[in-house]
Amino acid sequence: MRFFFCVYLLAFALLATATHGGERKFVGVGQLMNNDVFATIHDDRWRTGSSVLSVVHSRQGTAQLPAHFGDLLEYRFRGEVISPANIVAPAPGDRPYAGVLSFGLHSHFAFASTEISAGVDLALTGSQTGLHNVQAAIHDVLGFAGPSTATLSRQIPNDLHPSLTLEAARRFTLSEQLEIRPFIEILGGLETLARVGGDIHIGRLAMGELLIRDAITGQRYRIQRTGRTGWATTFGADFAWVADSRLLPASSGVKFTDTRSRVRAGLHIAQQCCFAWQRRHTLARARGLTPRAAARSPVRLSTHARACARAYTGKRATSVSFTA
Q1: Which of 69, 213, 290, 311 has its CA 20 to 30 A from that of 84?
Q2: What's the burial of 84, exposed, middle or buried (CB within 10 Å: 0-12/13-18/19+)?
Q3: What angle do the packed helices 274-287 and 303-312 form, to 10 degrees?
């Protein structure tokens, strides 16, 4: 009962700050997709795939952490598929199939030198999410077998789980290209656990930016794209003490372990779209135009050439990550 009171209290505070006070400006969008394709090509297993989308608004209009709760808000949308090691013929005692869709509101701010993230999510589980159909359709296109009737018959039931997330971290900048960020985190609701860990950031790209932590892998992804180009490497690890998991209900006959650990590495890359520039520059010279005049030319371009033209003035950012 106390837990639900805390969730509702935090949700009320977030909604109150979202609907009152000064106008917030759009800051950016962050998105991360996870899949176990590098570990196993033909089979999905356990935390097999997920995707998260974050939309951030701030009263300051930037991704810099404000000093007050509610000044910077993140609207978070997340979907995840969890499956046994074999989705066609699951082994006895393996975890049940689960689909999760969650919608959340989170606030990020700084208190003294501590970075704090606090938010609430509403998570839907079971067949009502429809994610098993999505997985089956993707596997059908790729020519792989989708989740069988036997697998889906053990899917966790339809339910609604109010959840909260609290994280506190401290950033230690050792040089222009090296940063260490230890953190503690508390989750409650869909999964209830306490976690301690840290991340190492090497490289100028995304240094000091607002990065959002993915709930599944612990990877931190970018929100606001700047004009900066370059690269950055990230390493992280954490350890958690688990008190409860609705993803492994007692009715499944599977008992969750009371500890959990993760190790991760990532690479952020941002560069100018040189290939697109070359295509437009070649087209411009052929028609006697400057590259920027080519963008305003009424000449109809091919789909590929138009894509190159759109990419010319911007930067391309790519992130690659691995988690164990």
Answers
A1: 213
A2: buried
A3: 110
Tokens of 60: 């300051």
pLDDT band at 40 (very low <50, low <70, confident <90, very high): low
By the 8 A CB rule, do 193 and 240 touch?
A: yes
Give the separation between CA 324 and CA 241, rounded to whole angstroms: 17
Looking at residue 269, what is its pLDDT?
86
- Tokens matching residue 57: 């608004």
For the stretch 249-291, pLDDT in tens is 888 888 889 999 999 999 888 876 544 333 333 333 333 444 4
- DSSP string covering 202-271: ESSTTTTS-EEEPTTT--EEE-S--S--EEEEEEEEEEEEEEEETTS-GGGT-PPPSEEEEEEEEEEEEE
Q: Which residue has the tokens 């699951």?
A: 90
For 282, the enclosing helix (H) or strand (E) is helix 274-287
CA–CA dist 299, 322 (Å, integer): 44
Task: Dump pLDDT digits (tens) for 86-107.
Answer: 888 888 889 999 999 999 999 9
Strand ranges, E, within the chain:
25-35, 46-58, 72-83, 98-111, 114-125, 159-170, 172-175, 178-188, 191-202, 211-213, 220-222, 230-245, 259-272, 315-323
Query: 46: which strand partners?
Result: 83
Which two structure tokens, joined as six digits, stand for 153? 């018959």
Rounded to an integer, what distance in angstroms lies between the CA atom of residue 295 and that of residue 281? 10
Instruction: Say if CB 301 and CB 279 are below 8 A apart.
Output: no
Q: Can you give the residue ranges of every domain in the chain?
A: 2-265, 273-324
pTM for this one?
0.79
Calpha distance 65→56 (Å, rounded):
12
